[in-house]
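User: Predict the structure for this protein chain, please.
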Amino acid sequence: MNLYEHTIIARQDTSPSEIKQLTEKYSKIVEKNEGEIVKTENWGLLNLSYLIKKNKKGSYIHFKIKGKGNVIDELEKNESIDKKLLRYLTVRVKKFDLEANYFVKKEDDVKKESFKN
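Assistant: Here is the predicted structure, written as structure tokens:
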């Protein structure tokens, strides 16, 4: 079994309920193709480096997937025709980093921001 990290970026006007539906939809596709979702992370609405289809921001969803190559093929085939998505990226990894949460604000960062305002 191969290990993959897969990230999708949804349009900035996508509601939280639609984000949940997208997460469930792609999770089911992985499971149908004998794959396994190890972890799902919702990174939230983040600024894009450049405009993509007239969007300045995007809602990021990150999956850690265990499965064969056909799982990713099927996933990307469905994502390429989805109008709610701006981009997707799959990276094959040797092992998962399940400890770190890169997009969760730490208490120190929150305190620093409150002093700036």
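Residues 12 and 58 are 5 Å apart (CA to CA).
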